[in-house]
Each structure stands twice: as C-alpha cells, then as structure tokens.
Design goal:
This protein is of the alpha/beta class and 259 residues long. It has one domain (12-240). Helix content is 45%, strand content 11%. The protein has helices at 12-21, 30-37, 55-64, 78-83, 87-96, 99-104, 126-129, 141-150, 163-181, 185-200, 214-223, 226-232, and strands at residues 26-29, 46-50, 68-69, 106-109, 120-125, 152-155, 158-161. It has a seven-stranded mixed beta sheet with strand order 3-4-5-2-1-7-6.
C-alpha cells in the first residue's frame, strides 16, 4: 500500500459539516485529516475540532439542524455479538478503552434529511485535541491566510491541519491519555495514526523540532524520531512485493525510489 496524493479540495463530509457550523471555525481531525494529507486510512469516525468557547454554540447549531446526540457505536459485527455469552460486558469493555475520548467529546448522528444520514461524528473541544489555534478564527481572510502559511490548509471556515500540527496533536493526546487513564485503546489508536503518518507522509525525525512542548518532542523522539533511530536504525519504509517472498517493491511507502 502506498500513500495517496494530498487532496486539493475538502472532502464531502467535512464540507457539509463546516457549512452547518458557519461561521465557526471547524478543524478536520483524526482519519479525515490524515486522509486529506495522503495517508491511506480506512473508514472511521468523522472527527471535528472547535474552539472550547465555541463548543456549546456548535452543539446548539447541530441540534437545531436535526443532529441527535448518540453514544459512539462500537459494536462488533452482529454475528460476533450474537456468539458472545455476555455481549453487553464485552461492549462495556470496548468502550472503557475510549473513556477519555468519550468524556471530553460529544458524539452525534447525521439526521435523515442530510447526506451521510446515520453516520456518526465527534465534536471535539480543542482542549482535548491540543491543536495550535493562533491564527484560526472567524474574522478575516488575512487570519486564514496566516493559518494556511503556517499549519493549515483553509477552505472558508474549514481548516485541515498540516503534518506537524496533526502529529503534535496526536502526540499530546497520547501523553495526556497515559496520564489520565493509563493504557487504553484510544492511546493505541493515536499511536497507530502517528505510525501511519510517519510511514506514508513526509513526517521525519525532525517533524517536531519547532514544537515548544518539550514533553511532546521527547516522546516523539523516543518512539518515532531520533532517539528511536539511534537504537533501532532508520525508519523502515520498504514495501514487500509479495508476503513471504523476501522481495521489496522498487519504491517505498511514500513512492520514493529505493536506492
């Protein structure tokens, strides 16, 4: 599997969602944001970040538009669920792994009269996502241009974080999750997202060199950056031509030629 080209237009879900919340700034996050940058992510929850001071306003706008608050649906496939002796206990255990995410965020379902009916979305305050918001506001094209030059691609009130901002956000999420709840499924998912970006995108060992958060810099260096490379060598971007064949493709995960 190789990276995709970076998108040059908003995805349909993010575009529709940001229009509903106008004029509030909306930041695509999670797998939608990764996919925009070119990571070959699969289907997942639609996640959007707003400023903390806009969170309640955004909830009201969504409610007025017919969105209904609903707990995240993490049920396994029906045939698996039916085979379990205590399905509810299993579901409770699954949800426990996302305790911190569910505590801070508000989940909704798209209403029947809109596209993507039944899809779930997460509305996330930025105190949870920890994205840089210095130039993310509702006021002017000038601010949006600054955001675009620095850490975002901007489409009206819709913002897509670029690699450094998104990696920093995920890394801080891992650190805070470990501090608050310890080992969790959410922490593992964030780690998986960082790993995908490290492999498929132009995310190298220096991606957080300009980050002011020393803990985030150290954590990234230890798990994905310079400290890790000193111990285990450079990040392996090779793609196997055929499982078990021992042969590699002539290009790596980023479609760069292998010397």
């Amino acid at each position: 599997m190789f990276r995709n080209p970076r998108d040059v237009a908003p995805d349909a879900v993010s575009s529709a969602f940001s229009q509903i919340l106008e004029p509030l700034p909306v930041i695509s996050w999670g797998q939608l944001a990764m996919y925009y940058l070119g990571a070959p992510t699969g289907a997942g929850y639609h996640m959007f970040v707003v400023r903390d001071e806009h969170h309640q306003t955004a909830i009201q706008k969504l409610t007025d538009s017919g969105f209904t608050q609903a707990p995240p649906d993490r049920r396994p496939a029906p045939e698996i669920l039916e085979s379990l002796p205590d399905p509810q206990a299993v579901l409770d255990e699954i949800n426990k792994g996302y305790e911190r995410l569910d505590r801070y965020c508000t989940s909704f379902q798209f209403p029947p009269h809109l596209p993507f009916s039944g899809d779930q979305i997460f509305l996330i305050p930025n105190s949870f996502a920890q994205l840089p918001l210095e130039y993310v506001d509702m006021t002017s094209n000038q601010s949006n241009q600054k955001a675009q030059l620095k850490q975002y691609e901007v489409y009206g009130n819709l913002f897509y974080p670029l690699e450094a901002a998104l990696i920093e956000s995920f890394v801080k999420g891992v650190i805070h999750d470990i501090e608050e709840v310890g080992f969790s499924s959410w922490e593992l998912l964030l780690n998986a997202w960082i790993s995908m970006m490290r492999g498929y995108l132009e995310v190298n060992n220096d991606i957080l060199d300009d980050c002011a958060d020393e803990r985030a810099v150290e954590w990234y260096s230890t798990h994905f950056g310079r400290i890790r490379e000193e111990q285990y060598g450079e990040w392996d971007l090779r793609v196997s031509n055929l499982l078990g064949s021992g042969k590699d493709m002539p290009v790596d995960m980023r479609e760069n030629p292998i010397p």
